[in-house]
Amino acid sequence: MFTRFFAPTIEVSAHCDLPCGVYDPAQARIEAESVKKICEKVADNDDADFRMRAMIIKEQRSELVKHHLWVLWTDYFKPPHFEQFPELHVLVNEATKLAGASGTKGSFDVATADELLGKIDRIAEIFAETKKG
Amino acid sequence: MFTRFFAPTIEVSAHCDLPCGVYDPAQARIEAESVKKICEKVADNDDADFRMRAMIIKEQRSELVKHHLWVLWTDYFKPPHFEQFPELHVLVNEATKLAGASGTKGSFDVATADELLGKIDRIAEIFAETKKG
Amino acid sequence: MFTRFFAPTIEVSAHCDLPCGVYDPAQARIEAESVKKICEKVADNDDADFRMRAMIIKEQRSELVKHHLWVLWTDYFKPPHFEQFPELHVLVNEATKLAGASGTKGSFDVATADELLGKIDRIAEIFAETKKG
Amino acid sequence: MFTRFFAPTIEVSAHCDLPCGVYDPAQARIEAESVKKICEKVADNDDADFRMRAMIIKEQRSELVKHHLWVLWTDYFKPPHFEQFPELHVLVNEATKLAGASGTKGSFDVATADELLGKIDRIAEIFAETKKG
Amino acid sequence: MFTRFFAPTIEVSAHCDLPCGVYDPAQARIEAESVKKICEKVADNDDADFRMRAMIIKEQRSELVKHHLWVLWTDYFKPPHFEQFPELHVLVNEATKLAGASGTKGSFDVATADELLGKIDRIAEIFAETKKG
Amino acid sequence: MFTRFFAPTIEVSAHCDLPCGVYDPAQARIEAESVKKICEKVADNDDADFRMRAMIIKEQRSELVKHHLWVLWTDYFKPPHFEQFPELHVLVNEATKLAGASGTKGSFDVATADELLGKIDRIAEIFAETKKG
User: Fold this and answer.
1) So what's the ipTM on this one?
2) Looking at the partner chain, which of F18, F38, F131 has a beta carbon nearest the beta carbon of E53?
């Protein structure tokens, strides 16, 4: 149920560059979910204008995915995290590439969007691990 | 635990104006949490430059709160929702005002940020109700 | 004649969130006029590239219409205005929807742009009424 | 009275780069009015935080003045206009400088804001002349 | 060779509106080079989706060209420069028009992009002349 | 001399996410030079308003440094580059951190700006190496 998300036991985490200390992989995930839905909707719709609008919005949403992931990589993750999770640099690099020209920006392929979501989930798991410590 | 948020049974909801159908009050809440943390950090820090940076960032984050709430009000909520929840127009209007000049933009008061968070939580509850449909 | 608009008896009204107290429905109207012209030009032009550019720009201009109307709704209009004009919440909500996916973003229909302009004119009338008081 | 501005005999003019053909010096003027009000409000208010917010917003509004004037200079005015009004290049250049570091960005001086408004009014007069032709 | 560009004898020049005093025509040129490459790639690629993406990005990059040139015109160049180089107003005006609807925004023509690059190079030469003084 | 930069033998390199193939570390460097000049100017100027404006602009310019470096890291550098230059992930991560809260955003220290410039120069060297291949 939705409201449980706002229950006090679930920390909504940090992202502004004061830094305020609030980061949350959900920001990238919400945009990536949006990208996936766009791909699905285009698959069900032959209208050329709709496809154009979908392209414009997919471009923006994919860029937001990249931005939110970059923020995590630079502003949240610290050297000890990179030591503890040696895959982290490559993982974030691949995830951001998957939201770019060779990924969701460059195609309407739902599988590509799913692959991106998979990477974001793995980043979210690592993020959750670092929060436990 | 964080990763449960990403469990398949919890729908991450919609927001782009295709519309993709993905909306999520979490977007406004994350920014508002950030605003609150900024207020708390300023209360603990006498440095004038820090206060200036905090002001700049609080201004941006508060604007994002307003934007995400406006998107919900215009793009997600439909006439039947407004009928079912007669408080909704005033609630969103007050919430966005609370993120403006007379609210978190205009002060470093933690109580104001909490009041804003309270409104966002109420909007999230209504949002969750409409999802149950 | 244009220059009369700048005559001292005509108040140019307010919009920044200091707040500076300067708001003006003309901002939304100018963007909506632009949206309408785009629709008219596309109706007269078969070039596919032109249509694409028109789509990109219509998307941006429609978003600006929404933004300017949201600013009026949150930053300019106060509780007494909403009491005096009970239609105001629904009016602004409908106007912003008309600049979205179900409105000018989603089609090149000139009639839709005209409907949006009609709503903005009604908002401008109410705005003018509140300025008299 | 405000609503006369929206009367059908008064053309609301052009600005997007389709181009839609809609341009309007009012866009620059509204932002410049906002800048002036900010300067006036700061003159009446000793609060340091208020001054900081005013600075942030004045910076943004001044940038918008520059942008709207640049758009007129590049997108609206054509070679015959520059021939007919030999002062036009220098006028727009000076106006945009007046909204920059050596103008309203760099000070809270109301007289500077008035000087900027004067230049915008002159540009608006020339604009109105070109519309008559 | 690239690294020579970063050698201490080559001044990287100025652009923020503090002003910091750092301006550089390279900013406009990099975006214009990008616009040209986009035109060339589209000429070699029949895919409709690719053309759409190219259009979206060309629109943004052309806008950046305009912005960087406007910044030079308003923030860097001073009255003595305009006296010394009487062609400067018209040159910058034409260059920004060439990055607009009647230029690179409005077509995928490589020759148009080259014409724009030519104007930027002439502006860069004048810029370099003013730096010598 | 400046104009040599525009000589045909020096490739101005790539950055948009078509991708157009044009990337250039000069974009990050220009912004970082600007940040350094801002720090120097503040050191020579006691005016509180000037410091505030400097803070606002330094925040924006530092963010641009981060953005341009992120684009290189995600869009330009490919797996073979990361293999050939094992320091690259950490180098870009450190450089972007140096343009953030713990770096140039968080202080007016000229030495910090210099440290950032040093990292950017190293990235530019690696970039130049990959172009030779």
Assistant:
1) 0.88
2) F18
